[in-house]
Amino acid sequence: GAGVSQSPSNKVTEKGKDVELRCDPISGHTALYWYRQSLGQGLEFLIYFQGNSAPDKSGLPSDRFSAERTGGSVSTLTIQRTQQEDSAVYLCASSLVGNNSPLHFGNGTRLTVT
Amino acid sequence: AQTVTQSQPEMSVQEAETVTLSCTYDTSESDYYLFWYKQPPSRQMILVIRQEAYKQQNATENRFSVNFQKAAKSFSLKISDSQLGDAAMYFCAYRSRVGSGTYKYIFGTGTRLKVLA
Lengths: 114, 117
Description:
The structure holds two protein chains of two kinds. By secondary structure, chain A is mainly β. Chain A has a single domain, classed as Immunoglobulins (Immunoglobulin-like, Sandwich), CATH 2.60.40.10. Helix content of chain A is about 0%, strand content about 50%. In chain A, strands 2, 4, 5, 6, 9, 10 and 11 form a seven-stranded mixed sheet that branches. Chain A has a four-stranded antiparallel sheet with strand order 1-3-8-7, with no helix packed on it. In chain A, strand 7 and strand 8 form a beta hairpin. Chain A is globular, with a radius of gyration of 13 Å. The termini of chain A are far apart. The model of chain A has no long low-confidence stretch (mean pLDDT about 90). Chain B is mainly β. Chain B has a single domain, classed as Sandwich (Immunoglobulin-like), CATH 2.60.40. Chain B has no helices and twelve strands. In chain B, a hairpin with a 6-residue loop joins strand 5 and strand 6. The termini of chain B are far apart. The chains are: A mainly beta, B mainly beta. Chains A and B meet through strand 4, strand 5 and strand 9 of A and strand 6, strand 10 and strand 11 of B.
């Protein structure tokens, strides 16, 4: 596609339910990043992928969070047993490998846990 | 660990005037990039300008320019002739290399810019 696509755009879920957030990066972009943006906060790094592997999972806040990427393309961020503090905008970004390649962001998924 | 600090949660500027947004960072690395991203209400982050640490010359993109002070670890963004469309959240970001061709980005907490007509 022309840009990074994220779905759904908005998600409201009940506390304790599982949610899946999807990111479809720009075709050919091997690097993929997930960030969380809470109200009034900056972007909190969650995880990044190089191809299908995730060399750095250090930002995942708890074991309720997991992510995978298949075929070097689409990535899914899963949050199990959601809590109210998980409410945030989840942003995905992708880039080519290389020094001069900037991040391209999607429009994010706004997750609200009630 | 690298950190990025934006000390101005909110700034205002009159249309057609100039405004400067501040950013400082902390790192022990010598090779890195710095970025300013803009986030309008649509939520999509848009790259405004970038600076390579080994370049002494300040980057410029039309009405946007930076004042990069490497020794002071300061990277401010100047917006000249401000327009209503410049109103957005602005994030400063630091990029370090974590592997062959791959990077980690660290973002500040953002500055909300209001442009007054």
